[in-house]
């Protein structure tokens, strides 16, 4: 397996040597799984530190829910939710802090406060000033595929060939980022599990995640507690499965294992401790001698 290092500033992340885990910290009242749990500053900071202790390689902080059919929030609201947390964590944890936003004004303030990565679920399409900001800052960016916006993405999503179309989308997004001055070595791609996809689309993308390696870029995947997992299990269980249930987490770990075996480099997770265990075992299996 090819081993590369994602390097910028003081940070070094090994890619290929082992699977990296990105811990999710939603400081929102309405995120689908953990909305409202970490709105208080002390709880958010404590949870971030706990995830680092559990083995998170990156902490991803978001102040706007991207659950299906959600409405956008103003820049000021995102700033009020995220910046105090980043300021409290900056210099206190030894892993990179990622800001999950589509707005360049939020990203700019977050980077100034101590964040060192940008996770843009719109692949920098929503805000035309995002690419220049990332290029000037010299930080990595995650480019994700999504149909439309969170408000519209689940309105009958359709593809002729979901894997091929998403590879084409991500290739175009990476080329636009390079043209804006972002080094290709700083680009990470995410197929956007759950963002404008049916259950079958999500399953196909996890099954064929290795095909994204044709882009020559690190692959991040985020199946954590997504609706497709819950829908599959509801069919088998015969009752509703909540996002924070043990069943949803067990299903998440199955999806994580499949994605890592397929070639994913980074996994975005709510339950860092369990996910770290999963990826370490899968890494060991993947790297075992023939």
Task: Give a topology summary.
Layout: E1 4-8, E2 11-15, E3 20-26, H1 41-53, E4 58-62, H2 75-89, E5 97-100, H3 104-113, E6 117-120, H4 130-137, E7 141-144, H5 162-179, E8 187-190, H6 199-207, E9 220-221, H7 227-237, H8 246-262, E10 266-269, H9 272-286
Parallel strand pairs: 3-4, 3-10, 4-5, 5-6, 6-7, 7-8, 9-10
Antiparallel strand pairs: 1-2
Description:
This protein is of the alpha/beta class and 290 residues long. The strands form two sheets. The protein has an eight-stranded parallel sheet. Strands 1-2 form a two-stranded antiparallel ribbon. It is 40% helix and 15% strand. It is globular and about 45 Å long. Helix 1 packs across helix 2 (75-89) and helix 8 runs parallel beside helix 9. It contains nine helices and ten strands. The chain has helices at 41-53, 75-89, 104-113, 130-137, 162-179, 199-207, 227-237, 246-262, 272-286; strands at 4-8, 11-15, 20-26, 58-62, 97-100, 117-120, 141-144, 187-190, 220-221, 266-269. The model has no long low-confidence stretch (mean pLDDT 93). It has one domain: Dihydropteroate synthase-like (TIM Barrel, Alpha-Beta Barrel), CATH 3.20.20.
């Amino acid at each position: 397996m090819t081993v590369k290092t994602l390097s910028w500033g003081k940070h070094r992340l090994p890619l290929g040597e082992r699977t990296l885990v990105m811990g999710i910290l939603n400081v929102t009242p309405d995120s689908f799984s953990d909305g409202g749990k970490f709105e208080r500053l002390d709880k958010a900071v404590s949870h971030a530190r706990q995830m680092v202790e559990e083995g998170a390689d990156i902490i991803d902080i978001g102040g706007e829910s991207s659950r299906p059919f959600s409405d956008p929030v103003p820049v000021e609201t995102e700033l009020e939710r995220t910046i105090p947390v980043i300021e409290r964590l900056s210099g206190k944890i030894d892993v990179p802090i990622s800001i999950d936003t589509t707005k360049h004004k939020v990203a700019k303030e977050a980077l100034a406060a101590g964040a060192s990565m940008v996770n843009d679920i719109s692949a920098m399409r929503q805000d035309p000033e995002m690419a220049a900001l990332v290029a000037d800052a010299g930080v990595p960016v995650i480019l994700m595929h999504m149909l439309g916006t969170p408000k519209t993405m689940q309105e009958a999503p359709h593809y002729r060939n979901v894997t091929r179309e998403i590879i084409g989308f991500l290739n175009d997004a990476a080329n636009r980022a390079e043209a804006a001055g972002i080094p290709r070595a700083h680009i990470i791609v995410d197929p956007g599990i759950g963002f404008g996809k049916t259950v079958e689309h999500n399953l196909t993308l996890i099954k064929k995640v290795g095909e994204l390696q044709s882009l020559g870029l690190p692959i991040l995947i985020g199946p954590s507690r997504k609706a497709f997992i819950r829908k599959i299990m509801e069919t088998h269980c015969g009752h509703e499965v909540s996002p924070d249930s043990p069943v949803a987490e067990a299903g998440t770990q199955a999806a994580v294992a499949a994605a890592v075996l397929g070639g994913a480099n980074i996994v975005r997770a709510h339950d860092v401790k369990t996910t770290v265990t999963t990826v370490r075992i899968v890494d060991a299996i993947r790297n075992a001698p023939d």
